[in-house]
Design goal:
The protein is mostly helical. It is built from 14 helices and no strands. Helix 3 packs antiparallel against helix 5, helix 10 packs across helix 13 and helix 11 runs antiparallel to helix 12.
Amino acid sequence: MTKNTVEHAFGAQAQAAPSVSENASARESQAAARRQRISGLRFDWLVTALSAMFVGGLYLDGWAHNHGRVDQSFFTPWHAFFYSGYLLVAIVFAGATTLNMLRGYPLTLAIPNGYRLTGLGLFIFAAGGAGDMVWHQLFGVESGIEALYSPTHILLGLGIGLSVAGPLRAAWNRHDDNPGWRTHAPAIGSLGLFLANLIFFMMFYFPVTVQLGTPGTGDGYFHDDVGKAAGLAGAILTAAALTGTLLIVLRRWRLPLGAVSAVLGLAILGATIIDYERPLMIWLALGMGAAAVVVDYLTWRAHPRRNPQSIRWLAPAIPFLLYSGYYAVLLPTAGTTWSVHLWTSTIVIPALVCWMLGFLILPPQQPEPGA
């Protein structure tokens, strides 16, 4: 054997050794990929998209109830779309959890980060759905406000709220203090869907769905003293729900510009679906939407995370602007049967209530011990 032959043989062996090592590294990488936990931003995107179908089905079913498109049966096309949205979210959640368990994670870690309450919400919704079917068979289909506040429907609403907020909770748990649209779009969408679900159960006093004190509203809502008190109370509750939820999130992050108006706009848009063929409702929604853009800019400039004291003026400013935008459209169009004393109260009193709510979000500083 010549010297060149020997060197060639050893050279071939030296080249072959890294190839074996590379194959081993590749196998280890593949095994690690198989063991990787299903969670994160892509999963959040998927859940948010399916949650939009879920909440959209809720509003579609609400539209059908408002327009006499339901009968005395549980099995309707509106329910089919609604429950299909639920089923898709449940399949994705259960599939991700199961795959994580097959990859060696215990159940407590197999559930994607931030989605434990989603699992609870899906279970509550399933229980409410089964109960709703029995309820309809026993007592018939509800009408009017009964359809909103029957026990099984409240369970459904609770289940939806817990389910669709999963991407928001997942983002909350991450160590990311500089959110942007690229990293937090699913969380922002999740927040908007959560508020849209909340507003659905306020449709009998949310000002876009039933106009406060207008001549042609429903069956004469808000015209006598009891109705006026109910309208004012509804305006307060709606303002507190929207403002309180927003302030909690704003204490966690400085949301990117456009996020707050998108969240509020999604909730307001949901309210218009209930009676979308009424032009006045669309104009009122646009009035509140324009105010939401102003709220967006103010919250972005205020930066409550860095400047917590801005909560003091931001909390009352949110309902003040939203209801001002509402009346800026209502008064010159349909008008109102309420006196100036009453309709201005639905701007000022919710603002005062939310101002006090701000002290819950940011309590006053306590004195130092012994001071």
